[in-house]
Amino acid sequence: MSKSERTRQFIIEKTAPIFNTKGYAGTSINDITEATKLTKGSVYGNFKNKDEVAVAAFQYNLSKVRKLIADEIAQKESYRDKLKCIPKLYLDFLTDKFPVGGCPIMNTATEADDTHPELRKHAKDAILAWNENLAALINKGKEAHEFKPETNAAEKALLIITLIEGTVMLVKLTGLTSYLKTSMNSIMELIDDL
Q: Which GO terms label this protein's molecular function in UniProt (predicted)?
């Protein structure tokens, strides 16, 4: 890595928790310079603007979640167990397993839906890719005769994501972590019924 690449990565890693916690609108250039101990000129010498930092921070947080899920899935043998590891992981979305601030998809989608088209597009792409990956897992499970042949993989994948992200939003909004167990258990039952 060149010095400028290391500096960019440093800025991303230091600001990712701030953007994931405070959001785009709530994160100021002062937050960025305070977290990195760099000058405004140094930050903008590596990024065109705050938007570019925010997108890079989102991608960084998203990559951490994707790696967490991929690592868990890789350890499972059956497709049912591969799917079940996802709601099990989301039971801990408020812990240090996840990026600071929780699920970056939900955080970014909630804030950027009407206010930041570029971040909205990245959150949308993340959801669509996740849905596609879950549907592929379900289809592989059907091919392996683990799931019923009539299972609509795309619909079930969408339902799993909707339950996860809706629960994340409710828990963050209300502070009632008991919703996590209830919803994740419902997802486990849904997976058992595939």
A: DNA binding
